[in-house]
Amino acid sequence: MYRILQADKLAANIYRMVVEAPRVAARCLPGQFLIAKSDEEGERIPLTICDYDREAGTVTIVFQPVGASTTKMAELKAGDSFMDFVGPLGRPSDLVDEPIEELKKKKILFIAGGVGTAPVYPQVKWLHEQGVQADAIIGAKSKDFVILEKEFSEVCNLYVTTDDGSYGRSGMVTKCLEDLVAEGHEYDHCVAIGPMIMMKFVCKLTEKLGIPTIVSMNPVMVDGTGMCGACRLLVGGEVKFACVDGPEFDGHKVDFDQAMQRMQQYKTEEGRAMLKLQEGDTHHGGCGQCS
Ligand code: NAD
Ligand code: FES
Questions:
Q1: What is the b/e burial string over 147-168, where b = at least 16 CB atoms within 10 angstroms of the residue's CB?
Q2: Confidence at residue 281, expressed as pLDDT on a 0 to 100 scale
Q3: Residue of minimum CA distance from atom 2 in ligand 2
Q4: Total-model pTM
């Protein structure tokens, strides 16, 4: 069992939990995810890692209840436990393999949207610990949905923007990036993590600006183990699976329209059957749901 040491609400419908999981904490790196299961009946839920403390043996998760299992998970309190807390899974961010001296020469920008702000934090924190100062934009619908502002401001140059202008700058993250560039900021590398639609439009913009961009395709995952086939993507025309080949990919090569359409189709039994028919052998189909 994996004990919850701390549980709090960061914003309406956004929860944070610090969980005792020394083996995950000892090995996880920025960009990776884990699978949590609250009890015997609960589903296995892939969750991004928001923070980890190797000495304390803890891992922090941030999530938004979207279905029955995550809603039940949100009811857990400090002192309760997860039955399973498996990880780290997926490939770490490419940044951790780059020589630090090369990273120091780069002007790196992180763009975090909504709940997607959580998986950006370990990357920015890791760079800060290596002596690399990056810029970050956090975008949220309104003031009440801005999360982790204090944590980010301690490890990077932070710009907060809200869609309705109720806090920080006004407008979506794409407008904030356009404004920063107009103000004279130049970037060599961008990491954008948030809703699919946000990542799609950030990539359109950074392609125009000539800024290589990495995105995290966590939102398409279902079982997170390479078995269900839900996270099948087209990246540069090649079939990839977000949970085993990613979750991070070159955003300028991801076919976002196909991924978003497929996500919708995967939600129904009929849609899954159609996907299996269309995708043949490249659809994993190990979930037992596609007959
Ligand atoms: P949201 O809808 O509040 O959007 C967050 C920000 O994204 C907005 O404030 C805006 O700045 C930007 N944005 C949204 N639409 C945009 C557009 N069309 N063009 C430019 N920018 C745009 O976000 P939310 O409700 O907190 O997000 C929930 C989603 O985040 C879920 O779909 C979940 O799957 C996803 N998510 C993604 C990851 C990941 O790893 N990519 C991790 C956690 C959650
Ligand atoms: Fe990747 Fe199921 S989430 S195959």
A1: bbeebbeebbebbbbbbeeebb
A2: 62
A3: 228
A4: 0.93
